[in-house]
Amino acid sequence: MVAKKATDKDQKFLTGIQFLWVLAIVLALALLRLIDSPLFVCHPHWELFLRELAFALLIASLFALTIEHTQRKQFVDLVNEERKALQKDVFLYAYGSNLHEDIRQEMRSSLLEQAFYRHGVSIDWEFSPASNNAELMEVKKRYSFVVVNTSKDPREWMFNFFQIGADDLKAVTDAKFVRLRVTRRIGGSNPETTEYQIGDMKVEVDQAQPHTKKFYKPFTMEPEEEMGIYYEVGNMRRLYGDDTYRSKEPVVGTSRVRLRFPPNFEVQVACKGMKPLNAAADNDPPTRYSLEWTGGLLPHTGFTISWSRKEDVVKAEDDPQPPLKADAD
Question: How far apart are CA 31 and CA 25, in angstroms?
């Protein structure tokens, strides 16, 4: 209430200053009109003085109005930035007062200062037998989501896709990036979709980490813009293994996971460690799994998917493979 009263007083004060400068402009115009009167023909010195005074009032008023407007805008921007910083500090110390300072700083850098979030996340994986190897399966992976720039300024959002194969380097070598589709002006009357192929993106394979493959492309997003992302990749996987999807930005709303497998497979999907997902209306195991997760996800958390052929379950327990192959964006 006190802050609101102070703001109202500032607004009245600024309005009063603006009124004075407008009044000065009107007075200057009146003086210029007055000195055209025949009365000043006999008084050239007074005519010159009033003319100079009128022009001085005009110039001073115009400069003052421009400077006042600029100063007011800068002041409002400064107050908004300080208010955001204060809100972050209040959140950290109100909800994280019992946490170590290192954890609070990590919360600030990875969450509170995050300019983007995602919603409408959809993961669609299709497993099918490989045509040239009975011990492998071909996996087609399709991802879609909407990324939102929460900032009041333009920000660069980087599309990153990491293919990580800790247990099988051949799976990474055979990985194929199919396409990336970006839709701008979502919700507008004329959305625009652009498709990018592998040649339009940069690809990195670190020789020191040959099990990792990175695809990336930057996009500049306008303030509070929403941008639709859809991309497809494919690779080869063993008949039993683990896979994960992690988002580099927070995720809100309902996330959907759809999996299609050949018959005779056991599949498990979990989120946030070992929490199971809810079955959707079109869930039809064992060949089609349609699951949903409703709620927020912090950055770099996501879904873990495990599968195995039923007759290979005992074999996998007796001869376990390295546990993780991860797709992360």
Answer: 10
**Average pLDDT along the chain, 329 residues, taken 10 residues at a time:** 44 59 76 72 71 78 73 77 66 59 66 85 94 87 95 91 61 73 87 91 78 85 94 88 88 94 90 81 92 89 88 54 49
Give the pair of three-digit tokens for residue 48.
């010159």
DSSP helix/strand/coil, 248? coil
Which of 142, 117, 120, 116 is closest to 254 using CA atoms? 120
Which residue has 């959809």 as its token pair?
Answer: 122
d(C-alpha 73, C-alpha 176), whole Å: 50
Domain coordinates in residue numbering, the chain: 2-109, 116-328
Among 139, 161, 148, residue whose Cα is nearest residue 258:
139
Distance of CA 195 to the CA centre of its chain: 20
Q: Are 120 and 136 in contact (CB under 8 A)?
A: no
Cα–Cα dist 104/309, whole Å: 44
Tokens of 153: 């300024």
Q: How far apart are the first and last CA of the chain?
A: 45
Q: Where are the alpha helices (DSSP H) in the chain?
A: 2-34, 44-95, 101-107, 169-173, 313-318
Among the listed residues 25, 23, 17, 20, the one whose alpha carbon sits nearest the alpha carbon of residue 56:
25
Structure token pair of residue 85: 């910083």
As assigned by CATH, the class of the 116-328 domain is mainly beta
Type of residue at 77: D
Q: Residues 6 or more apart from 20 whose CB is under 8 A from it?
A: none
Distance CA 13, CA 22 (A): 14
Question: Are 256 and 122 a contacting pair, CB within 8 Å?
Answer: yes
Query: At a CB cut-off of 8 Å and minimum separation 6, what does 182 contact?
Result: 159, 193, 194, 196, 219, 227, 228, 229
Q: How far is CA 292 from CA 78, 141, 270, 281, 286, in A?
A: 42, 17, 10, 10, 17
Checking DSSP bridges between strand 241-246 and strand 302-309, what pairing results, if any? Answer: antiparallel
CA-wise closest residue to 242 among 327, 161, 318: 327
Number of residues that this document lists for the chain: 329
